Every structure is written in structure tokens, then in C-alpha cells.
Amino acid sequence: MSRGDSGFIRPGYDGLEVPDAPTGVSASGGDESASVSFTAPSDEGGSAITEYGAVALNSGETVATGTASSSPVTVSGLTNGTSYTFKVWAINAYGPSGYSGASGAVSPAAPTALFSGGSDAAGSLWNVISSVNISSAGNATDFGDLTLITQRGSACASSTRGIFGGGASSTGNAFNVISYITIASTGNATDFGDLLSGGNSAPTAGCSNDTRGLFVGAYNSNTINYITIASAGNATDFGDMLYNPGPFGSVGACASSTRATFGGGYSGGTPLNTINYVTIASTGNATDFGGLSVSRYSLAACSNGHGGL
Questions:
Q1: For a tag on the chain, would you pick the N or C end, based on fewer CB atoms within 10 A?
Q2: Exposure pattern of 20-56 as b/e (b: 16+ CB <10 Å)?
Q3: CATH superfamily placement of domain 112-296
Q4: Taking 50 as the threshold, does the pLDDT of residue 1 lie above it?
């Protein structure tokens, strides 16, 4: 009986036949959990890999473990707001590989929804940011303030940051300002940078994965802006929508980890039913996805990362 590099004791261990360690380990935080992604080793050893494991490390100590048959591995039992790194191993009939290199640090957090800006029944505009814990019902609580008093802005988020872009004043002047907050801590928004289209830049929708945020369209413009959420700076041109959504043609947008979809709008006096999509990791013009069940504009959209509504 022998001990493998990952600390397991098992009969029949053969260090020459175990797999290589996985590579490219990254993690994203959930509610008291983390999803750990990796690249499987090309050398599986003397037999096929049957399982992968991931460990959560805090101050160098293993605090939780998860297993799966492929990437990603979910590690549960973590503490929200605590920083962890993660390592992964592979196992076949001859034993476990060594550990992979460590991921970057990740802090799990409760799923949070943010609501910002807007206009009330009297026509007054607001810069208030409110938050709710999605996993438990209840009234929203004050989070902080936007950098501007605005309406008709758009927003997107990663697991750690909320991003707010564009909007308009009470007189209809459009803003190109982007601001951000750190979701795990309350406080006022901070300047992030600017959208591309200057003073005519109230985007019609925002969506994101955990890396990039997209601001889709603008007042009478088909421009798609993008930002890298983890680093502040001005937006960059991504490409164009298939059509100009018009001056009142707000589209709805949502995203998975790989694709952004956006649909609807108002062009030439007619509501639209077109759905566009782009691949978030690359730039380029949008591609036709299909059609909405009803032609419409000024609509909203959301998704769970698998399907959009």
C-alpha cells in the first residue's frame, strides 16, 4: 500500500501509471461554495481518469473538498467573504496525480441583486443603489449611491463587481459615465471609465459573464461597447448589432458564460422581434439568433446562464 502525491493511501498505487496533474485552474465564487474549472491532463497515465477532486485552501490549510467526473468541480461548505485558493487532482485506477498549481484567490458571496437610479412618480431622479439577497425574500436595503443622478441606465456584473453605465438626465441629456461597486461591501459607486459614444450614449441594455461586460446599443445607435470588469478603464468597441434599435427602441439582453443575446427594438416605426447574439470572449458584429414570439420594444431580459427569458 502506497501514498500518492495528493495525500491518498490506496492499494495498487503505481506512480508511473497515475495521470498528470490538471492545469489552468480557475475558480468563481458562489453562495458558500465555489466552482473550480480546469484543463484535464493530456497524459492520463495507465488507465482512464475516473474522477477529479478539488481542495479549498485558506492560509495554506485544506478546509473543504469536492469531486466530479469532469470540469468544473463544486466545492461546498465555504464561508462567504473568506478568501480561498483551489488546487485540483485527477485519479485513475493506479492512483491520484499530484496537485495542480493553485488558482487565484476567490471569496464566496451570497447571491445579490442590485437596483440603481430611476425616476419616481413625481418625475424626480435618483442615484440610490438598493440590494437584496436573492436566496431569501425580503425588502431591499440601501447599498450606496451612484456617481450620477440618472434614469434609463444599464448594468452588468461579475461575481465581485457591479457595473453601471450610461443613463440620462431629467432633461434627456445622455451620460457616458461608467461606475462600479464591490458587491461584497456596501458603499458609493466609484468611477470606472466612459462609454464610447460620448454624450449620446444611454445604452439600451447591459449583460455580462464573469469577465466581460457588454453595453448594447445606445440612443439611436447599434454600437456594442465592452469592458473588462476586473480592471477599470474606458469601454472598447466590440462590434455592431444587426440593426439600429431606434430612439425609443430599448432591447432586452442576457448572457451565459460564453454568449450574450439581445432582442427586440424599434426601427422605422415598427417594433422588432429579432434576437442577436455574440460570443463574449471575442469581438465582432452580432449574428442572427432567431425571433421573439412577439415583436416588441422597451423589454427586459434575464437568464440563469443556461436559458434566457
A1: N
A2: bbbeebbbbbbebbbbbbbebbeebbeeebeebbbbb
A3: Kelch-type beta propeller (2.120.10.80)
A4: no
The 10s digit of each residue's pLDDT in 195-228 is 986 445 676 789 999 899 999 987 778 889 999 9
- Four-way CATH pick for 2-96: 3.10.20.30, 3.40.5.10, 2.70.98.40, 2.60.40.10: 2.60.40.10
- Predicted TM-score (pTM) of the model is 0.75
Say if residue 122 is exposed, middle or buried (CB neighbours under 10 Å; 0-12, 13-18, 19+).
exposed
Amino acid letter, 89: W
Cα–Cα dist 179/186, whole Å = 14
Name the residue among 66, 72, 61, 69 with its Cα closest to residue 24: 72
The sign of the torsion formed by the CA atoms of 151, 157, 160, 165 equals negative
